């Protein structure tokens, strides 16, 4: 085992936890060696300039994980098939597996090739003991949403993985929530495979506490004519970062990658994504909306990479930030890297304040200042939620937004 | 009911240190009357309507605006709206992401709540808005869209009239509602005003054309030039202006 050069207290605690483990396989040992060389990402590492995980974890001394109190999920009214991952421990649903899906606890999956140099992905591979596996069977339109609740507590660290396979021509709605009031670190690595003609909708809600550091990765592999529609909403944390890596391996698939953040205080949210177009006739639409007030910071990094063979790629990326206080910040990095010649790709990015003219218009109609501001913020953020297909699910997201506006 | 006394307004910067646009404007619209204001481009008609409605940056440096004998200048725009003051905007804006029906209902109930009245139920609201939408010529599909997004100029004006019909304001200022409207739409504006017209309502109709006044018979016509009302008269004044233009008043002001 390679020792870390100058570990921070959190890195040292992770290193000690790894050394104390009785059973690790070769892939995990190799992964830990890679992590030991890389260390936790910090602002001088490319892609982490605005989200310095190492610094965020230096702010608190590493402690122990604690069993959190678990409140009912806001998505309970949808009667989802509910999985929980509590401090990295997987709880399967209390009911018998319904028809059309299979799931279970599996041995951890190895490194994802494309993320080999990703320090947190690597660390996750080294540390995760068990993986939650879910499969939606051939041609099944699974009507109940599948809810995965990531809940952490205390000031320790925990790691988890999920492996999801959406079989050919199947369709499913996944909901993932990130919850936890503690001051610890949680890392989740999700592998998603969306097979030929299948559709995966993924809605992510991050409502972790102000002291928390959460990192989620979703690596999605799309086969022929697969569809992947994702919507994320984060109210931030000391640092929350949700990464999506979409690989279009076969022709005719499409994706939408929407996200929004609502940030106050000192909170920080980061939505980072890459779409790798490797086959022709694929399409992606991406809309990010960030709202920050006080001294909060919103980060959006989006990258479209169009490979030489990916002719007729149609990809559009838009990031808009709304800053409600002078001390708030938005950092956007939209990137296009295009090696095919017959493509339609575009990106746009804006940062601004609330429109005075619109505010006056609403107030002239009778809304007081707070209500007018709330309506405009809600409208701004709501646009990113429009790719949620199910009305009841969209309504719950709208409620979370309204709740935030009321509280803040 | 609306009384404007020696009103001075400077715009340009927030401290009121910009150039003076209204220079001692006085005007009175008694209860139940409709008055028209005409005047050259840039003479301050929209400035007057923004000042009455309470837009930031359009504060009175001196003078007063009274509604039913009470000054409104210290009130927030929404407090003025709750008193029944309505402004039909010269250039209504698009507000992306705001659902039209939801917004109008929220606004209506906010006004009612501020006046101590009960909320309008969802069912009553839908019935009412359907009826009024028909009157102003907006179909259901338009009501389901985001507020004014992608609407034509004329459709946006219809949306202003829809809101006026829904809110039944105590005093309405219509800033060039007729500009850009086709003949049928002009008649519609006339119909909306005439339906609302009554002993307890007043209107200030800003227009460049006498044509709208064929449908809305004003009780008085005023000419605004050089930051003041330079002439007042009956409906015949509008006809005369259409013929001879504003040159005479610009000289005078
Ligand atoms: N916010 C502002 N900042 C600077 N100047 C302004 C502002 N608002 C109005 N003005 C100026 O005040 C003057 C009067 O403008 P206003 O819009 O009131 O004219 P109007 O009579 O409504 O004209 P129109 O017939 O073209 O609608 C113009 O010279 C205009 O440029
Ligand atoms: Mg004007």
Automatic annotation (TrEMBL), chain A:
GO BP terms: iron-sulfur cluster assembly
Residues of the signal peptide: none
A Pfam family hit: SUFBD_core
Ranges where the SUF system FeS cluster assembly SufBD core domain occurs: 155-380
Domain of life, source organism: Bacteria
PANTHER family reported in the protein's UniProt record: PROTEIN ABCI7, CHLOROPLASTIC
Protein's name in the database: Fe-S cluster assembly protein SufD
TrEMBL record, chain B:
InterPro entries according to UniProt: AAA+_ATPase, ABC_transporter-like_ATP-bd, ABC_transporter-like_CS, FeS-cluster_ATPase_SufC, P-loop_NTPase
Transmembrane regions listed in the UniProt entry: none
Superkingdom in the source lineage: Bacteria
Residue ranges occupied by any ABC transporter domain in the UniProt entry: 2-251
Keywords noted in UniProt: ATP-binding, Nucleotide-binding
Keyword Flavoprotein tagged: no
Leader sequence segment: none
GO molecular function, one term: ATP hydrolysis activity
Keyword ATP-binding set for record: yes
PANTHER family found in the cross-reference section: ABC TRANSPORTER I FAMILY MEMBER 6, CHLOROPLASTIC
Family membership noted in the UniProt record: Belongs to the ABC transporter superfamily. Ycf16 family.
NCBIfam families, per the entry: sufC (TIGR01978)
Protein name: Fe-S cluster assembly ATPase SufC
């Amino acid at each position: 085992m390679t020792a870390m050069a100058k570990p921070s207290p959190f890195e040292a605690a992770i290193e000690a936890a790894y050394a104390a483990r009785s059973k690790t396989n070769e892939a995990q040992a190799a992964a830990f060696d890679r992590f030991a060389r890389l260390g936790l990402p910090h602002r001088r590492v490319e892609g982490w300039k605005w989200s310095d995980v190492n610094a965020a974890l230096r702010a608190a001394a590493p402690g122990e994980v604690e069993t959190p109190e678990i409140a009912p999920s806001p998505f309970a009214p949808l009667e989802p098939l509910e999985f929980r991952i509590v401090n990295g421990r997987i709880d399967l649903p209390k009911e018998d597996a319904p028809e059309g899906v299979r799931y279970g606890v599996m041995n951890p999956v190895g490194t994802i090739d494309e993320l080999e140099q990703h320090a947190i992905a690597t660390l996750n591979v080294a540390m995760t003991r068990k993986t939650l596996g879910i499969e939606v069977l051939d041609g099944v339109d699974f009507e109940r949403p599948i809810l995965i609740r990531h809940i952490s507590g205390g000031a320790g660290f925990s790691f988890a993985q999920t492996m999801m396979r959406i079989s050919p021509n199947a369709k499913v709605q996944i909901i993932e929530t990130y919850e936890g009031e503690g001051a610890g670190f949680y890392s989740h690595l999700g592998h998603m495979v969306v097979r030929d003609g299948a559709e995966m909708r993924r809605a992510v809600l991050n409502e972790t506490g102000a002291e928390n550091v959460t990192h989620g990765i979703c690596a999605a592999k799309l086969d022929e004519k697969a569809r992947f529609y994702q919507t994320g909403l984060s109210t931030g944390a000391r640092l929350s970062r949700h990464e999506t890596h979409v690989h279009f391996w076969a022709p005719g698939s499409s994706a939408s990658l929407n996200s929004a953040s609502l940030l106050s205080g000192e909170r920080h949210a980061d939505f980072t994504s890459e779409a790798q177009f490797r086959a022709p006739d694929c399409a992606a639409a991406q809309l990010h909306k960030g709202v920050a007030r006080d001294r909060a910071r919103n980060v959006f990094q989006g990258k479209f990479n169009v490979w030489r063979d990916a002719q007729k790629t149609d990809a559009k990326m838009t990031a808009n930030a709304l800053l409600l206080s002078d001390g708030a910040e938005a950092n956007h990095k939209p990137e296009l890297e295009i090696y095919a010649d017959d493509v339609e790709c575009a990106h746009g990015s804006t940062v601004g304040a609330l429109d005075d003219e619109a505010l006056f218009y609403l107030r002239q109609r009778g809304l007081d200042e707070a209500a007018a501001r709330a309506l405009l913020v809600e409208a701004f953020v709501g646009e990113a939620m429009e790719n949620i297909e199910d009305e009841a699910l969209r309504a719950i997201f709208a409620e979370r937004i309204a709740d935030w506006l009321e509280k803040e | 009911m609306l009384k404007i006394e020696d009103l001075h307004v400077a715009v340009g910067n927030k401290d009121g240190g910009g150039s003076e646009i209204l220079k001692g404007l006085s005007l009175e619209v008694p209860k139940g009357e409709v008055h028209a204001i005409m005047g050259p481009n840039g003479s301050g008609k929209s400035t007057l309507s923004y000042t009455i409605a309470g837009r930031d940056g359009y504060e009175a440096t001196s003078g007063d605006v009274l509604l039913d004998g009470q000054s409104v200048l210290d009130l927030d725009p929404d407090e003025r709206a709750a008193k029944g003051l309505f402004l039909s905007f010269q250039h209504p804006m698009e507000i992306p992401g705001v659902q039209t029906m939801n917004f109008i209902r929220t606004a209506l109930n906010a006004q009612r709540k501020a006046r101590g009245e009960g909320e309008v139920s969802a069912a009553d609201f839908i019935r009412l808005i359907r009826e009024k939408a028909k009157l102003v010529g907006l179909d259901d599909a338009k009501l389901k869209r985001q507020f004014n997004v992608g609407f034509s100029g004329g459709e946006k004006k219809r949306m202003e009239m829809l809101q006026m019909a829904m809110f039944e304001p105590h005093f309405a200022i219509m800033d060039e509602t007729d500009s850009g409207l086709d003949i049928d739409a002009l008649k519609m504006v006339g119909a909306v005003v005439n339906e609302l017209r009554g002993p307890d309502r007043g209107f200030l109709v800003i227009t460049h054309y006498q044509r709208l006044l064929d449908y809305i018979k004003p009780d008085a016509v005023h000419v605004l030039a050089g930051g003041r009302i330079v002439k007042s008269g009956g409906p015949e004044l509008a006809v005369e202006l259409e013929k001879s233009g504003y040159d005479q008043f610009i000289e005078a002001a």
